[in-house]
Amino acid sequence: MKVALVHDWLVTHRGGERVLDALCEVLPGADIYTLIHKPGSQSPAIESRRIFTSFLQHLPGIHSRYRHFLPLMPKAIESLRLQGTYDLVLSSSHCVAKGLRTPRGTPHLSYVHAPMRYMWDLFDDYFGPGRTGLPVRAAAHAVRPWLRRWDRRTAAGVDRFVANSRHIAAKVRRFWGREASVVHPPVALERFAQVPLEGGGQGGYFLWLGAFAPYKRLDIALEAFRGLDAPLWVVGTGQDAARLGGESLPANIRFLGNVLDASLPALYRDARALIFTPEEDFGITPLESQATGRPVIAYAKGGALETVTNQTGIFFQEQTPAALAAAVRRFDAWEQGFRPEDARAQAERFSRARFQQAMLEEIDAILRG
């Protein structure tokens, strides 16, 4: 079977790219089509493929400034042409990948990380007051109606949708008027589950880990811990790094920047709990934390409701510093009944092998018609 894999862009290696990596493993002959590719940024399984890019690839500075070209992305994905005949097109999409034009008769299965979040329900998180300058906000408001129409129209060109969570399946129904089955994305649990369960939490700190993107709401964690007598360690960087890292922070908040992947299991294990502030489409970090036997303090919306249980974490109901601070204060009493083995068992439900088997079943279903 000849398969064309379509992915929005290959610049960083995060959750979406880990999904692509797992798909490459079970579809060894697949080619990859993407808007832009930064050579060497991906896993060997991805880098070893034939990778076809759009005209955006040739723009100066594109690998660091690609978000600025969002209005051109629909045109760029539609300009990509399949190089040969394929039995299946499988897109991995959180922006425009599902909009690739496929030949008549070629089935298109789309794995959806999210509808174009910055143009739908999270628009204000990206372009609200204080998030960007006035010219960028004005431009975003100008292109938003057109991009939403394009996003909805191109959904009609997909034969079958798979969402990465029930939360995203509901958005696919609400924004595109389509139904989607659910296959949770893979989590590389093996290296996190290798650390012993005994002795976890000895570092005494709470951990926030992720990209410094607006919707991740690191600002909530920083503000909450200003008034708490507890240490917060922050791991990551991203587009909000200058704004958030430049704030005057109290001594109990420590920025670690990016850390080596090999250091993450121990970092999770020594934390008292992971602080998870975003309304995430799915969210891999809560599962990584649970695989090491550590609980999660999570915002009670989005994918966290599918990955964290009342036995493996506690929830705060409002996305505010006050609500998070109250949850951290409750944590001392809740922690007395926590069992690390429950957290690891919960994480093991989201293995790479389970994802791959479920996706092969989805492929079989679309090919059988």
UniProtKB/TrEMBL annotation:
UniProt-listed SUPFAM superfamilies: UDP-Glycosyltransferase/glycogen phosphorylase
Glycosyltransferase subfamily 4-like N-terminal domain segment(s): 15-191
Gene Ontology molecular function, alphabetical: glycosyltransferase activity
Alphabetically ordered keywords of this record: Glycosyltransferase, Transferase
Gene3D superfamilies named among the record's database cross-references: Glycogen Phosphorylase B
One of the Pfam families matching this protein, by short name: Glyco_transf_4
InterPro entries noted in UniProt: Glyco_trans_4-like_N
Protein name: Mannosyltransferase
